[in-house]
Write a structure and sequence with these properties.
Blueprint (H helix, E strand, L loop, with lengths): L2 E4 L9 H16 L3 E4 L13 H12 L22 H13 L3 E4 L3 H13 L15 H9 L5 E4 L6 E6 L3 E6 L7 E3 L7 H11 L4 E5 L6 H11 L5 E5 L19 H6 L4 H9 L14 H7 L14 H15 L2 H14 L7 H11 L6 H8 L11 H9 L1 H13 L5 H14 L4 H13 L7 H8 L1 H21 L1
Parallel strand pairs: 1-2, 8-9
Antiparallel strand pairs: 3-4, 4-7, 5-6
Helix pairs in contact: 1-10, 6-7, 9-11, 12-13, 12-14, 15-18, 16-18, 16-20, 17-19, 18-20
This protein binds glutamic acid.
The site of glutamic acid has 7 residues, from loops.
């Protein structure tokens, strides 16, 4: 059975890179009827951030990347949090010591720094020269038993090379000279990433490791560990890293990388997943809008390209707009907007009213938050007047007063009726329609960017429009009082 996993470290906010790798891992597991696991790699005490794990799991759920095994859902090979598996790592480090494939090293941090410096002077890049290998086993055991602080290191080959087979790139050769005797168990008894990741991937029966290209260099070390334990290695797939427009690695400095940011800004999880799926993958018919289910159906690794995919927030915004207009149905869009209206303190009254507003606004917003900004006046009688709108109000005050009388006389605001009346009103005064519309628009919305006037009048309704006109005149009087 194919088993994939993501192994995020809880070191900060949930990162779009985690979602990106998560999507490919999820899709590959689902494609094969396999299982997708989430494991929390929290053994680096210095980088641990309280609450980060919850944030990551919440983000995965929001995106719809359901995992079959994980810290909060359990599973047959738990626990799924590395800090709860320390005994396992110790036991496995001990196993390698017993096999003579690992050794204890007692250098102090100062000694290690001196060794590193010496190696650098000699032009050797790696940080440790394996000198503690020479300590006789009995002596090392005695020192350890006496409580001397130490680490356990892997004995890596001194010559030759390690061949890694990456499913996307083929064979890659790493010279053994470039592979240091990495630490497996730190002096505080915590494992390093290499030991923990290999022990866990093996015990959790992970068959396919899908991760970012930045982990490629650690693969030969992990391969050596699999060999040392006598285990079969998984298949390795290293996906290209996300780039910012311009080509730099996507990071805090080059773009927004937090999944929470996209949720809070009113991006739809479906759109974010769709967009991240296009990072390296393309559908056989090249269409850009597709669901996770469709990706699973069409997925194959030959459709994944290794050129650095560019994550462009503007493009994502465009895609989100497509989802708002074309993919989700009207009711769904309305439902998704409700929490955003609520957190802006706006009340929408009935669902029918909200959906009427959304219908006319739909071509005019891309994110849910943008809707709230642009459509505020539909839900707020105390809408503010933009400076440009105030200018129109002033210029058109006389016309607006006459227009108000006309509107007051109409039995209702059916679009055909208001259109006929307003057109005739403008013609009788030899005014361009715009000269009538702009002050009216300014008065009843405080803005000049609105949907079509007749729809607007119909949705707001006569009673509300008349009150808004009163309010606009009061506002004008205040403005004139200020002069
Ligand atoms: N804990 C590593 C990370 O934060 C996992 C790397 C891997 O997938 O092996 O990405």
């Amino acid at each position: 059975m194919v088993k994939t996993r993501i192994a995020p470290s809880p070191t900060g906010y949930p990162h779009v890179g985690t979602a990106y790798i998560g999507i490919f891992s999820y899709v590959w597991a689902r494609k094969n009827g396999g299982r997708f696991i989430v494991r929390i790699e929290d053994t680096d005490q210095n980088r641990y951030v309280e609450g980060a794990e919850e944030g990551i799991l919440r983000a995965l759920k929001w995106l719809g990347l359901d995992y079959d095994e994980g810290p909060d859902v359990g599973g047959p090979n738990g626990p799924y949090r590395q800090s709860e598996r320390l005994e396992l790592y110790r036991r496995h480090a001990q196993e390698l010591l017993d096999k003579g494939l690992a050794y204890r090293a007692f250098e102090t941090p100062e000694e290690l720094a001196a060794i590193r410096e010496e190696l650098q002077r000699k032009g050797l890049g790696y940080g440790y020269d394996g000198r503690a290998r020479k300590i006789p086993r009995a002596e090392a055991e005695a020192r350890a038993a006496a409580g001397e602080p130490h680490v356990i290191r892997l004995k890596t080959p001194e010559s030759g090379s390690v061949m890694v087979h990456d499913e996307l790139r083929g064979a890659i050769e790493f010279s053994s000279r470039e592979i240091p005797d990495v630490v497996l168990l730190k002096s505080d008894g915590y494992p390093t990433y290499h030991l923990a990741v290999v022990v866990d991937d093996h015990l959790m029966e992970v068959t396919d490791v899908i991760r970012g290209e930045d982990w490629l260099v650690s693969t030969p070390i992990q391969k050596l560990l699999y060999q040392a334990f006598g285990w079969d290695e998984p298949k390795w797939y290293h996906l290209p890293l996300l780039r910012a427009p311009g080509g730099a690695k996507l990071s805090k400095r080059t773009g927004h990388t937090s999944i929470d940011y996209y949720r809070e800004e009113g991006f739809l999880p479906e759109a974010l997943v769709n967009y991240l799926s296009t990072m390296g993958f393309s559908m056989p018919d090249e269409r850009e809008i597709f669901s996770l289910e469709e990706m699973i159906a069409a997925f194959s690794w030959d459709r994944v390209s290794l050129g650095g995919p560019v994550f462009d927030e503007e493009k994502l915004r465009w895609m989100n707009g497509k989802y708002v207009r074309e993919v989700l149905n009207l009711e769904e869009v309305c439902d998704r907007l409700k929490p955003f209206l609520q957190s802006a303190g706006l009340e929408w009254g009935t669902d029918e009213y909200l959906c009427q507003v959304v219908t006319v606004m739909r071509p005019r917003f891309e994110t849910l938050k943008e809707f709230v900004e642009k459509a505020r006046y539909f839900f707020d009688e105390n809408y503010p007047f933009a400076p440009k709108a105030e200018r129109e109000l002033r210029k058109g005050a006389e016309t607006l007063r006459e227009l108000k009388e006309l509107l007051a006389g109409l039995p209702d605001f059916a679009p055909e009726r208001t259109e006929e009346a307003i057109t005739a009103f403008a013609a009788a005064r030899d005014l361009k329609l715009r000269k009538v519309m702009q002050p009216l628009r300014a008065a009843i919305t405080g803005s000049l960017a609105t949907p079509g006037m007749y729809e607007l009048l119909e949705i707001l309704g006569k009673e509300r429009v008349m009150k808004r006109l009163e309010r606009a005149f009061a506002h004008l009087r205040e403005l004139e009082g200020d002069q």
